[in-house]
Write a structure and sequence with these properties.
globular, single chain, mainly alpha, Amino acid/polyamine transporter I
């Protein structure tokens, strides 16, 4: 890496590589293949060109414009709008992690199951109430650790993250090479025909695009690197385009490899939960290494998921509360103990996540259905925080002459506003249609309606809590006067 005196030492290829490691993973390939089959290859190409590239370039401009903003999108909103909108952005960023935190303990349990049993029986045979009871215990342990400021897992997670990235690339290489080296059969028929990859743009298809948005979202992680780039106006967009190409190639080739290993016309029901492990087990058998690849992947996944759980308990809450405005956040949430920990914020997190863990087990019977539902719920809720990125960019486009930036995505304010509006509407559209359950209504109408109700109620309750908080805070401020 080259260096300069002003600490702008990142080149376009550095930006692309760092961003790729932060944004992408094998589970993005598995989850979307489970939803769409081989037609997901065309979906990946479309989502990259129409959504991911403009999304990352907007984030680049916002990051370059507000170089000293430490609160991410909430800081952007505070500069561009009012404190109230900044609060709502910060609240959204924190609250969407609740279903995410509820899902991670399941992933840890599945990883341990494959590590010690080398099969997917845990997912297919364990009652949901048993899984959720264990998930609750795991979550509460991590919540307790977060209140003690334990950071060891974060460091271990960085190493595990590199391991997961390596395994993702290895999966693509081995999956594509297996028919030629190991002489394995190709599971999906007609992979040589274009029609196999063409989506049917019907209602069912559009209910699955929230998972694609969920997979490529989170580009705001990239914003701190804009001002570390040697020539932001030229090299940052070049890095983002390279990132999009790398992600698209990984998604397309990974999905193609999935089609070679699994029959895309008869996708296993447990593919979201067990697919990556099963794939490595099949590849291990092809290349005569047994379950070695499965065990390595399980260890990497357990460690990286544990680190993600620890970080996601702590970091979003700190971002939300560290610079909280007393006019919008009640004093009880802002109050810190002698160790500087906002203990009531952790308690609220614990209550909300516990509800998301416990309640679904009352209406969803099997572990596999529960895992699939919670993954899809995350694809509906998590992109809600991306909406604020596009709101911030639209506001920035309207005030483009007021702010200086080393990098500008679109100089024309009306065109820039149109890009922001397009990405906002597309994300909202994906979230709204994503609430439709992905199970067969005819096979289990009761569970279908239960999942639909949970998919609608959960985001509304999370948003409603954010609206109620300022009311409580306002009353407290009046009482203090």
């Amino acid at each position: 890496m080259e260096t300069t005196g002003n600490n702008r030492n990142f080149r376009w290829y550095n930006i692309a590589l760092i961003s790729f490691t932060a944004v992408w993973g094998l589970n993005n390939v598995v989850n979307n293949f489970a939803n769409q089959g081989l037609v997901v290859i065309v979906s990946w190409i479309l989502i990259m060109a129409l959504y991911f590239i403009p999304y990352t370039l907007m984030v680049g401009q916002l990051g370059a414009t507000f170089q000293d903003a430490e609160g991410g999108v909430s800081s952007w909103m505070k500069e561009l709008s009012t404190s109230r909108w900044a609060y709502l952005a910060a609240w959204t960023y924190w609250i969407v992690h609740v279903p995410y935190l509820a899902q991670k303990p399941q992933a840890i349990l599945i990883g341990f199951s494959w590590l010690f049993q080398s099969n997917g029986n845990f997912v297919n045979q364990t009652p949901s109430y048993v899984v959720q009871a264990l998930s609750l215990v795991i979550f509460l342990i991590f919540l307790w650790m977060a209140t003690k400021g334990v950071t060891t897992l974060n460091r271990v997670g960085s190493i595990a993250g590199i391991g997961m990235f390596t395994m993702s690339i290895l999966f693509i290489i081995l999956g594509l090479a297996a028919p030629f080296i190991a002489h394995s059969s190709i599971a999906t028929a007609h992979m040589d025909q274009v029609s196999t990859y063409m989506p049917k743009f019907n209602f069912n298809y559009f209910t699955t695009i929230s998972m694609l948005v969920f997979a490529v979202g989170g580009a705001e992680k990239i914003s701190p690197y804009v001002n570390k780039t040697r020539n932001p106006s030229k090299e940052f967009p070049l890095g983002m385009i390279l990132l999009a190409i790398m992600v698209a190639l990984s998604a397309v080739l990974g999905s193609f490899a999935m089609g070679m290993i699994f029959d895309a016309d008869h996708i296993p029901n447990d593919l979201m939960a067990n697919g990556s492990y099963t794939a490595f087990q099949i590849l291990g058998n092809y290349f005569h290494v047994g379950n070695l690849l499965t065990w390595i992947f399980a260890i990497s996944n357990i460690l990286s998921t544990s680190a993600a759980l620890a970080i996601s308990v702590d970091a979003p809450l700190r971002i939300f509360l560290n610079d909280a405005d007393k006019n919008f956040v009640p004093a009880s949430l802002r109050r810190k103990n002698k160790n500087g920990i906002a203990i009531n914020g952790y308690k609220l997190t614990g209550i909300l996540v516990s509800i998301i863990i416990i309640v679904p087990a009352l209406g969803i019977g099997g572990m596999n259905d529960l895992y699939n539902w919670l993954m899809n719920l995350n694809s509906v809720v998590m992109p809600m925080r991306y909406l604020w990125v596009f709101v911030a960019y639209m506001l920035l486009s309207k005030q483009i002459k007021k702010f200086n930036s080393d990098y500008v995505f679109v100089k024309n304010s009306k065109i820039g506003f149109a890009f922001g509006l397009w990405c906002f509407l597309f994300t909202a559209f994906a979230c709204i249609l994503g609430v439709i359950p992905k199970i067969d209504y005819a096979a289990n109408p009761t569970t279908w309606w239960f999942q639909l109700a949970m998919n609608i109620i959960t985001p509304f309750v999370l948003i409603a809590l954010g609206v109620i908080m300022p009311m409580i805070a306002k009353r407290q401020v009046k009482e203090e006067l």
